[in-house]
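Predicting structure from sequence has reshaped protein science. With that in mind, we have picked out one protein's residues alongside their backbone shape tokens:
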Amino acid sequence: MAPSNSPTDEELTRRAQAGEAGALGQLLARHQAPMRAVALSLLGFGPDAEDAVQDAALTALRRIGDVRDPAAVGAWLRAIVRNTSRMRLRATREKPGLDGLEHLHLGDPDQTQPDRLIEQHAMRDWIWDAVEELPQRLRLVLMLRHFSGITSYQEIAAACDVPVGTVRSRLNQAKAKMAQVLMSTAAQTHDDAAAITEESRHEAVATLQAAEHGALPPEISELWPAESELVGILGRPGEHIHPTSVMRQILEAGVRQHVRHVVASRDITIWEMDVTNPVDSVNPCPPTLAWLMFRQNGRVQKLRVVFPQPQR
């Protein structure tokens, strides 16, 4: 039970439903012990029980608005753990690695913007700050799996140039770390995730427009310094290729790209593009592609272009 001078569960729940990240963090911390007890009773000691508690915490983040009796939020949290644990017991197939966040963008009627719901979510800045705390290798697979159109294990493996098993392992690690970071950073102030994404979208549009005109304005030139390197399928092993030279070749072939979706963190950015080819093209470019950019101090150090399967 909470001390008499602490806010009640009902007060914290209503504040969390209004978008106060710190209130939800307090609720999770307050009820962590009974949540863990439920998981242990069903799964026994071991990583599965800890995973169930972490999954439940992420699900609570997504579904806190569903609580109809704020005073009984403790029972609601324990029920989520119970259901999660039972699902683990009877699971016959692998589940994605970040269950609590996965559905933040599902059900969006506009599939061209898969993060539309998270952008409307009152706690999106808290979520994205937690994403930023992940190591880069974990953050990349998470951003692809849950916030981009590159979602299958095979596509992510190809984009990251790692085996499918490594993708699974990294997603599982990301899930565990996300739950821990969310609970430890709930009461902190957070960057404006929407502003970071909007700035990156502006950079994408400006880069494409500048490439078509044959000259990059100063602010876009800073994004693509001389040390920028194109790697992957469009690069050349052992040879430094600057991205702008390939942009120019693509344009000369009559191929045009149009920004469809942007996913941005401080040092990883994903630009998803729709592609149009000349009507008489003999070897057309695939209809979609994505730019995976790794940045340092805001500047692109490496660019990898990948060609995911078109969305149905």
Summary: Residues 92-122 have pLDDT under 50 and may be disordered. Residues 210 and 216 are 5 Å apart (CA to CA). The beta strands are 229-231, 256-264, 268-276, 288-296, 299-306. The radius of gyration is 22 Å.
